[in-house]
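Appendix B. Chain record.
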Amino acid sequence: MKKIVLVFSGGLDSTTLLYWLKDKGYEIKTLSFDYGQKHSKELEMAKKTCKKLRVENKIIDLHNLKDILKSALTSEGQEIPEGDYQDEVMKQTVVPNRNMIMLSIAMGYAISLGFNRVAYAAHSGDHTIYPDCRPIFVEKIRELAEVIDYEPVEVLTPFLEITKADIVKIGTELGVDYGLTWSCYVGDEKACGKCGTCIERLEAFKENGLIDPIEYN
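Structure tokens predicted for this chain:
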């Protein structure tokens, strides 16, 4: 039964995963989350991509989480840090337990649909900064997913051990429209090019000999 719920941000990684799952023949439902992030650019891109691919997208309103989950991505008085993901300052962009919350909701949705899989697009570049993208987290969430219902739910993370450059290579081969993705933590008209996710994204395209189709300041 190839039916799956994808945690779908509208960013580069999850959009590539959406195309990858479609290529593998999955029936897909996507969940996007408004968790109080400072801008909605990714959510807008998620809607556009799902419309283009004719995939159902639901946006779950968790906006009030910003009141209890403190992060540079959600707290109005905290600036988005600039720098590479290896920099200690980028830990300010961690939203505590975010993926656990989203995956838990995705699993409940999958069970309600009669689906037996969920997926999210953690990759190796996330391991340094984001605890809920590391292999040990995936191992434990998979163990939990086996016992949350009468039948086990599988957690797919096909990009877990590869880089963002690898993801761009895969996506390019699949024909991903990267012009309909957003990665920047700053919600301006153009991407900032200075935050960790912008730097990593630009490097990923460069490593593939490609030019990122979105605009930067």
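Further analysis of this model is presented in Appendix C.
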